[in-house]
Amino acid sequence: MYFMTGAGPDLMDAATKGALEAGTPVGRFKISKEAGEWTASNFHPYQPSEVFFSARKHGLVDAAVRSCSSDRTAVVTLPGGIGIPDENFEILALIQLERMGSELPVPFLLMNYDSFYSKILGFLDDCKDWGTLSNGEITSMWKVCDSNSEALAYLAGFYNLPPPSDKARHDNELQTASGTFS
């Protein structure tokens, strides 16, 4: 088992630290910042930074694709900057076109902490009204979660695993500079 991240600061760094504390190997797809480098936790010095988002998106998709039925992967999107919607729409398009998850479905979770993505979700609802998306088209491709416990329960159901215990829910709070998410 390993953990892949976009290697950015804040929530991505908090998720990386959690994976490292759990003893899980961590890889990254980091984008160089022109006016200086973002720093994140304990990455191997041989892992290069990417210049373009296309390389990062390709790597994240490759990491998420399931090679066999025993693989348990997921795409989990946390609140973030402008690159996150770009990656989200790319993954949605790949799922819609059956280029990702066609043989072995990959769970795609949008973590909507404190309604962070409510305006994007509203835009997608407007697309249904305009006829550019069909009813239920997007909801069939991802799961919008408001809490970590909701995401863990969804993943347990997706992979037919026992539901997480209350202790596991407590242990899976996400600590960030902005506060705690659970």
What's the CATH architecture of the largest domain?
3-Layer(aba) Sandwich
Estimated helix fraction: 25-40%
Count all strands and give the number: 7
Terminal CA distance: 23 Å
How do the strands line up in the largest sheet?
A: 3-4-5
Shape: globular
Low-pLDDT ranges: none
Look at the helices and sheets and give the structural class.
Answer: alpha/beta
- Biggest pleated-sheet summary: 3 strands, parallel
Element order, helices and strands?
EHEHEHEHEHHEE
Total number of domains: 2
- Looking at CATH, which topology of the largest domain would you report? Rossmann fold
CATH C-level class of the largest domain: Alpha Beta
Strand content: 5-15%
Task: Count up the helices.
Answer: 6
Radius of gyration from the CA trace? 17 Å
Q: For the residues shown, what is the average pLDDT? A: 82
Please describe the topology of this protein.
Blueprint: E1 3-5, H1 11-21, E2 26-28, H2 53-64, E3 75-77, H3 83-96, E4 108-111, H4 118-130, E5 143-145, H5 148-158, H6 166-171, E6 174-176, E7 179-181
Parallel strand pairs: 1-2, 3-4, 4-5
Antiparallel strand pairs: 6-7
Pfam families: Lysine_decarbox
InterPro entries: LOG_fam
